[in-house]
Amino acid sequence: MFDSPSTNDDYPAMRNFLNPKWLLLLNTLPLVLLAVLCAGQYAVIHTLLPAESLQLWRWFALALAVLGAATLAYALVQQGRGRPLGVLYSLLALAAYSGFLLVYLNQEQQLIPWSVPRWMVPADLSLYVLTFSMPTLAHALFVLVVHTTPADRRHSAAMSFLLAFAAPLAWGIVLLLPFSFLQGWHTHWLWNFLFAASWVVGSIGSLFFIVRGAYIMGLNRAEDAELSMVWKVLISLLLPLAGLLLNNGLLWGGFSGYRSHEEGVFGNFHNPWFYMLAVLNGVLLCLPDQAGKWPRLLIFLGRSVLFSYTFYFFIVFLPYLPLSILAIILLGLGLLLLTPLILLVVHVRELGADLEFLAGQFPRRWLRAGLLAGVLTLPLIITARYWHNRRVLHQALAYRYTPDYRQHYDLDEQALVSTLEVVKQHKERANGLAFSRQVPYLATYFNWLVLDNLTISDDKIADLEQLFLGAAGAREPEFTRPAAAPTGGAPALSGLSARSTYDARQQTWVSWLDLRVSNTDTSQRAGEYATTLALPVGCWVGNYYLDMNGRREMGILAEKKAAAWVYAQIVGETQVRDPGLLAYTDSRHVNLRVYPVVRRAARTTGLQLLHKEPLTLTVDGRRVTLGDTTARPLAKPVATPGNEVVFVSAAAKQALPLVRRTPYYHFLLNVSAKQAAGKAAYARRIASRFAHDAAYAHARFTLVDAYATPVPADQWAQELAQHTGRGGFYLEGALRQVLFDAWQHPGPTYPVIVVVTDEVSEAILGPNLEELSSAYPESSLFYVLGATGETQAHSLLTNSRFGQPATPAPGQPIAVRAWPNAAHAQAYLPDNATADIVLNQPTVGVPQPRGASRWQTGLLLHGYQQWQQFHPEATEAERVPFVQASFRAGIMTRFTSYLALENEAQKAALSRKQQEVLQATATLDVDEGPAAPVTDVPIDGEVWVLLAGGLALAVGQLRRTWQVG
């Protein structure tokens, strides 16, 4: 340990601040992290910055480098000399870093001008600069307090606290009054400088005397035991509780007119644990010193555990310390605002005293271990709780969106309830430095650990609540909600042309479809053009372009969610930009969006299509032919090099044998919690309608609530009567399970699905199950047997929730084509005039580059995509390799999109968002969905930096409480 010239061992914990190694932890590390964060922001936006802003960035980078290098050099020199940090260092550090912050805050708008879209700089750079500069300022202040308060003489704590309140007024009088007459003499810059300087000096002076007063209280604790106890009760117990009550609006009615019941002035601290820990922490700090070693050890361990609580609030209020002048003027609020700083000094003092006493009773290494274990207890408890939240939430998401159909699920619904409540609480983005429903820093940690820095849309939360809790879905069905579009004109297709060439080497047509779009209402400033194209089987999207500003900008093939998010942010800007987005809506339809189409100016865009056969497309009612339609049809199937996936053309399919499989009914019985009273009539209803059909002889039955439970055909009525419903009516999951079984085990029979329920509107059912169409080649219909005993047909291909007006009766055999032959059929294909993709092997891997043509690579990509629809459990493990395979081939899939962007900054932002999305869990969302407004992501992919900084500060606080002899 390094001692100051006035060495005294009565207060070793505070004197340990003089060790030069502290500068490595509290200055060098935070500045390096700040530089990394700033560099990340600069890399995205630098191409948008004007020359003046670029120069400012260079100057501030140089200033930060000089300050950091000088401080590091001083620390190394003092360490080598075996000398402590001096008074001159603390004064220079306070002046230099305060000056840096003043100049930065004054030039902040020039560093990132308003012309730079705020979604490109989602992190608040000012918050970063303040957060990572404050440790240096706080440490320099502590060093100055230690040097100016020798422990070998008597000091007055009351005088220090009195000076803390007098300092702002004194500096205001000394610095501001003599220059007040200059306001009318064109000295606006001088006035602003003096005002800011007086504010900074007054703030530092106030904080200095406050910390010094708390320090003196520790020095005088033995002499003034009663007074020390009064101060400790006030600082450790009463003021923290009063601060929580005031923050949460429980004193004087709070700010109820301006915030919700879960908001707080400085964050959401409504959880009862904050109050309980505040009381426990205050009681432990106020306990008198114990003479026995075992009681003292227990108190020491308790104080160690709650040190994390004290340190947490110190970190939370650290950015507010510059507001201390205003806080002191508002006497009550000021005392509460500064309580965490004073409490930290008191807590360190008590731990230091405990350590000094116990050092003679127990081995030092055991005390160190106990201190470390205690300080880590609360963070580890929080981490364990958040990890449990993550596990429960991701299990629920996996069951709903990426299930393993071969696995039996049984989730903890009650744990999910609490987890979803936390998710909803943490979904709100921080709104500046005041009035928030988030728990400061813990919300960031939660979003990182549980949500991978993404979110869960309100639709998905409602979906999970309806599924597992039986709650009524309050949202519109996904397929009825229109896509978001900016208000403006009504752009429409004004020109359509095609260019096709035949690649003889690959035996593939390469066609370009060129679209010209214009405003139909030229009085409107701007509008978005959107259309959907139906692509035939075997046609892949291989490129995309959008003309903008007199040049042709080729699209970037990007991860789908990231591309959609970037497009939404650009469209949501107040400035007019030029994005274009092309993405799959399902396996056979692509959506094209172009923004803006401005008044009379037409926009030109186009996409490249790779196809084996000539084809005709319809775009907004206009037909266009790609390729030579006089060419001979493709009469034979085409396979990938490894024969994993086969393209069966319409002509080739007609050569396959025609067979009729035997149908059987598969009844899905609604046994959800809400259907408990109506299920008794199911047996009568089924017998009345289906008992005489031939397909009923081999019927199967599945009980459906939150889970799908198959039951024996001869015992289904008994199982139905004994079943206790859990959650909602998860019809989609049951349909997927039945279709997976039919696809996995193709045979001479096939299911005709009949849903038995009183009200199909209560079912959890998406827009369609088109992606599983290879599992129902005979018919895309399923039937609903309602409360009236009548059946109504519904389509698996489109708008599955709504009934069909006229359909064939269920249970009639329908002819299909057998692949590759009737005797050893591996798949069955619908008997129609369209091509099909057949998986020729039970497992299809992610495509690897091995000499296939580009079209064949596309076939393998889409074949894998078809396999993955029946094996959604593989999504998480193979999503990134699949996306990378799509990138390599330049062929769009359902996981990727083509996005045309205007400038390099947009492309850099896309790259950053894409990396974040690919590192996260596949079932999480980037925003609230197609209709969501523009959103901010305050931490984005850099949360690890803030967490690293917080961890480093925490480790430092552990070390300073232990004196190394």
Question: Care to describe what's here?
Answer:
With 965 residues, the chain is α+β, with helices and mostly antiparallel strands. It folds into six domains: 153 residues; 62 residues; 140 residues, no CATH class; 97 residues; 173 residues, Immunoglobulin-like (Sandwich); 159 residues, 3-Layer(aba) Sandwich (Rossmann fold). It has a six-stranded mixed beta sheet with strand order 17-16-15-18-19-20, with helices on both faces. Strands 1-2-9-4-5 form a five-stranded antiparallel beta sheet. β7 and β8 form a beta hairpin. Keywords: Membrane, Transmembrane, Transmembrane helix.
The gist of it:
The protein is of the alpha+beta class and 965 residues long.
